[in-house]
Every structure is written in structure tokens, then in C-alpha cells.
Amino acid sequence: MHGSASSLSASVSSWLLVLLCAVSGAYCLRRVRGWGGWGGAAAGEAVMGFGMALMAVPLGGGGAWRPPVLGAVFCAAALHAVWLLRGGLHHAHHLVGSLTMVYMAASAGSGNGHGAGLPLLTGALLLYYAGYVVLGGTRLITAGGPAAAAAAPTAHAAHAAHAAHAAHAAPTELIRACRLAMGMGMLAMLLSM
User: Fold this and answer.
1) What is the DSSP letter of 91?
2) 20, 186 in Cβ contact below 8 A?
3) Nearest Cα to 190, choosing from 109, 97, 112?
4) pLDDT category of residue 190 using cuts at 50, 70 and 90
5) Pick from 18, 39, 16: nearest CA to 28
């Protein structure tokens, strides 16, 4: 074993973050394919998941190409997010996420390693993503709760309503879980700055 136990734990957590982001990106890419084309927000989320996975790979000192390449990719993702804003402000999170990744890529490219970012901006982004994760987790926990089944007047109607809800809610809950996972990944990356 090379290095200390702390570098081993950092490496393991980095690879777990890579796995989490790559799986989220793959699920979002599957959603895009399910729509038969570039499916709006799902395409941006797929780029975000795979880009976060690539950024989290622990390469040591051999990744000088990553900051400019990822910066360009996330600038393009930010332009895509601006395009999505035509559909409503609920897409603003995609813009924040893309610009956050541009910021982290630029900070990584500065050569100063950890702590290279601006403390006030990093702190504001940490607060944003902490709030996003808490809110997303709350929404995920309360999705499809017992209140929906209790509102049905009869057992047969309750079963039919539950089956209809399950057919439509499972993908929504999975999408929420995917977004929550990427939000936690972003929070972890910001904490490591």
C-alpha cells in the first residue's frame, strides 16, 4: 500500500464519488434516449453527471488537460441551461450547476490545489447546495407518502389510485433521487476545494 491511510480514504471516497456521478449521468442519458432525442433537462443532467465523474477521478498531478477541457464543456452546458430558461425559471438550477462546475474547473486549473477558490463564493455555493440537498431529500422522502392512499374513499379505488400513482411516480422519484445524488456530489466536490 502506498501513502497514508488518509490518502487511501481520500482515494476511496473520490472513486465512490466518480461511481455516483457516472451512474447518475448514465441514468440521465437513458432518460434522453427514452425521449427519442435530446430531451431538454435530461441531456444537461447527463453531461453534468459524466463531467462531475471525470472531474472527481483522482489523477494526482497528471490531469493538467482536465481544467480547460472541463471548463469548455461546462461553459457549453451553461449555454444549454440558458436555453432551457426559456421554459421557466425552474431550470435555473441547471445554470447554477454548470457555472459552479466552470468555477471549480477554473479553480483546479489555477495550480493552487485545495483552497484555490474564492472563500465567499465557495461558501455561498456550499449553502446553496446544502439547501438543495436538504430540500431534495425532503421532497424524496415525502413523495408518494401515505396521505395519497388515505384520501381514496374505498379499498378498490385506493388500490387503483396507488397503482396509477406507482406507474407515474416511480420514474419521478428516481429522477429526484438522481438529482439528489448529483447535488450531494456537487456538495462533496465543493467541500474538497
Assistant:
1) G
2) no
3) 97
4) very high
5) 39
pTM of the predicted model as reported, rounded to 2 decimal places: 0.75
- Interatomic CA distance for residues 108 and 44, integer angstroms: 22
| pLDDT tens-digit series, residues 164-182 | 444 444 478 888 888 899 9
DSSP 27: H
Answer yes or no: is pLDDT of 121 > 50: yes
What is 132-181 written as a DSSP string?
HHHHHHHHHHHTT-HHHHHT-SSHHHHHHHHHHHHHHHHHHHHHHHHHHH
**Nearest residue to 101 via CA among 178, 185, 12:** 185
Residue 95: closest CA among 159, 169, 51, 41: 41
pLDDT 10s digits, 48-72: 899 899 888 887 766 788 888 889 9
Check residue 118 and give left, alpha or beta (phi > 0: left; psi -120 to 50: alpha): beta
**Total number of residues shown for the chain:** 193
- Residue 126's nearest CA partner among 82, 191, 43, 171 is 191
